[in-house]
Amino acid sequence: MNMRYSLSSTSALLAAVSWTCFSASFAFVPSTVASTVTTSFISVRPCTPHTVSSSTSLCAVGALVKKAKEQELRKYIESGVEEHVMEKYNLLKENLATINDETLADQVVGPLQESLTRRKGTITVIAEYKRKCGFNPTGLIHEMHVPELLSPSFREYGASAIAVMADPRMGGCDYDDIRHFVEEQRRAKMEVPGPLPVINNDLIVDELQVARSAAYGCAALVLNLPTLGVEQTKVLLKATKAVDLEAIVAVSSKEEAQTAIDSGARMLSILHLGTVEDMVAAVDGLVIPEGQQVCKIANILANNDQQLQEIEDAWSVRDQGFNSVWVGEALYKGGADPNEQPGGIIKSMKSKSSLKFASPKAARGRGEGAREYLGDILM
C-alpha cells in the first residue's frame, strides 16, 4: 500500500506557511517581522535584485510564477506526502548539517556532469519530455507518446540524459512521468547503451521538492537562479547535495552565470537567449575556481518553421565550447514519432558535421564529409 504522510494534525504549520507567503508578497513588510514566522516545507522570499531583470515587470512575473508553484506545493502537502518522500526529506535535514559553503566550493564531478562533458569538439544532448509547446496553436504536441515509448528511443538514439518538465502548467507533465522514465531506464541496466539519468525540470522552490526528486529516482534537478535569487539558490544547492543529487543552475546572463559559479554551481544551463552569439557571450570569460570543472549547457530554442536551424545552432555552440545542448520543443516540431523525429534530431545534433562544409537545411549531402558520430570517433 502506498502510505502517505498526513498533515491533518499540523494545521499550525500550514497556517504559518500561508502567513509567510502573504507577508513575502509585500516588499514593505519589515524583515524583523517576516523572520519571526516559522516555516517548515515552504520558505518564501520576496523578489530580489538577482531576478531575471532589474525591471519591475519581469520581477513581478517571476514572483507570480513562484507564488503559483508554492500554492501547488501547499496542496500537495495537504493531500499527504508519500512516506518514501518523507524519508528522503528527513535524510535531507539530517545531512544538511554537514554541508557548508566550503563543501559547495570544492566538488567532485558527479555522474551526470561526467556524462554530459565529453572531449573538446563534441556535444551531448539532453532530451526534454513535455506535452505542451509554443509552436502549435493548440499549445499541445500532437500525438505525444507516453514515456515508456519515448524513453528507450532517447537512449538508443544517443541522448546523454532525459529531462522531464514536471510542471503541469508549463510542460503538461508531473512526477508520475518522472517515475515512468526512471523505471524504464532502470530496466536497461544490463543493456548497451545503458540507462540514462533523469533530470527534474520542475520549478524548484523548496527542500521538499528536492527530497521528492530524490525519492522518485532523479539524478539531478534544475534550479532557476533568476526566479529563486542568490540566497535561496544556495540553500537549495546544499539541499540537493544532501540527498546526493546534482544541480543544474539556469541563468540568463554572464552576471548570473558567474554568480551561480560563485554560489557552488558546476553545471550551467543558459536559457532565454535567442541567438548563439548571446549564449556564447553569457559564458565567455567566466572565472572558475582552480581545480573545478563547469559544464556549459545551451538551451536550443524551437523555431516557428519546418527547417532545421536548431541542429545548426547545436553545431555552432559545440564549436564555441559548449559541452551539451538542452533540446525540448525542437524535438517534436515534425511530430512525436520516436523513430522519425526526436531520435533523428538527437542523432543529427551529435553528428560529425561542420558548418563550413554542411548545413542541416541543405537538400543534398554533397560536401558534408564523414558521416561518423563524434562519440564513435573520439571515445
TrEMBL record:
<feature type="domain" description="Indole-3-glycerol phosphate synthase">
    <location>
        <begin position="96"/>
        <end position="333"/>
    </location>
</feature>
<keyword id="KW-0057">Aromatic amino acid biosynthesis</keyword>
<dbReference type="InterPro" id="IPR013785">
    <property type="entry name" value="Aldolase_TIM"/>
</dbReference>
<comment type="pathway">
    <text>Amino-acid biosynthesis; L-tryptophan biosynthesis; L-tryptophan from chorismate: step 4/5.</text>
</comment>
<dbReference type="InterPro" id="IPR013798">
    <property type="entry name" value="Indole-3-glycerol_P_synth_dom"/>
</dbReference>
<keyword id="KW-0732">Signal</keyword>
<feature type="signal peptide">
    <location>
        <begin position="1"/>
        <end position="34"/>
    </location>
</feature>
<protein>
    <recommendedName>
        <fullName>indole-3-glycerol-phosphate synthase</fullName>
        <ecNumber>4.1.1.48</ecNumber>
    </recommendedName>
</protein>
<keyword id="KW-0210">Decarboxylase</keyword>
<keyword id="KW-0822">Tryptophan biosynthesis</keyword>
<keyword id="KW-0028">Amino-acid biosynthesis</keyword>
<dbReference type="GO" id="GO:0000162">
    <property type="term" value="P:L-tryptophan biosynthetic process"/>
</dbReference>
<keyword id="KW-0456">Lyase</keyword>
<dbReference type="Pfam" id="PF00218">
    <property type="entry name" value="IGPS"/>
</dbReference>
<dbReference type="InterPro" id="IPR011060">
    <property type="entry name" value="RibuloseP-bd_barrel"/>
</dbReference>
<dbReference type="GO" id="GO:0004640">
    <property type="term" value="F:phosphoribosylanthranilate isomerase activity"/>
</dbReference>
<dbReference type="GO" id="GO:0004425">
    <property type="term" value="F:indole-3-glycerol-phosphate synthase activity"/>
</dbReference>
<dbReference type="InterPro" id="IPR045186">
    <property type="entry name" value="Indole-3-glycerol_P_synth"/>
</dbReference>
